[in-house]
Amino acid sequence: QVQLVESGGGLVQAGGSLRLSCAASGRTFSFYRMGWFRQAPGKEREFVSAVSKSGGNTYYTDSVKGRFTISRDNAKNTVYLQMNSLKPEDTAVYSCAADPFGVGTPVLSKFQLWGQGTQVTVSS
């Protein structure tokens, strides 16, 4: 059973960059498709990005395409989200999550294991 811990959030000006990290326990990390989600106050949790078990396939919601890059290093049991050209509307708590099956389109309901989240705030 994997445990997830996010880090790398903070306060940044619009146009700036942050890199989020999600460290996972266990030696079966590569068995999970990994995803990033975000939730702003009073809003529903939103899919941001996902990466396949091997790192060979990536997925992004339209609003972050061209700005965010997801990657993983299975040897380090870590998944990353590089966020560039940040906008105030990116402000949210960002959580990583694990999908033990990794089949089909990555949607929220498929992700069974969750981290605590890290706050990202983008000022205008």
Structure write-up:
- The chain is an all-beta fold and 124 residues long.
- 0% of the residues lie in helices and 48% in strands.
- The chain has strands at 4-7, 10-13, 18-24, 33-39, 46-51, 58-60, 68-73, 78-83, 92-99, 113-114, 118-123.
- The strands form 2 sheets. Strands 2, 4, 5, 6, 9, 10 and 11 form a 7-stranded mixed β-sheet that branches. The protein has a 4-stranded antiparallel β-sheet with strand order 1-3-8-7, with no helix packed on it.
- It is globular and about 40 Å long.
Task: Describe the protein's topology.
Layout: E1 4-7, E2 10-13, E3 18-24, E4 33-39, E5 46-51, E6 58-60, E7 68-73, E8 78-83, E9 92-99, E10 113-114, E11 118-123
Parallel strand pairs: 2-11
Antiparallel strand pairs: 1-3, 3-8, 4-5, 4-9, 5-6, 7-8, 9-10, 9-11
Give the DSSP E fraction (strand runs of 2 or more residues). Answer: over 45%
Q: Main β-sheet: number of strands, strand sense, barrel status?
A: 7 strands, mixed
In quaternary terms, these chains amount to single chain
As a whole number of angstroms, the C-alpha radius of gyration is 13 Å
Distance between the termini: 40 Å
Poorly predicted runs are: none
Average pLDDT figure: 95
Helix/strand structural class: mainly beta
Shape: globular
Helicity level, as a percent range? under 10%
What is the tally of helical segments? 0
One letter per element, helices H and strands E, the order comes to EEEEEEEEEEE
**Extended strand count:** 11
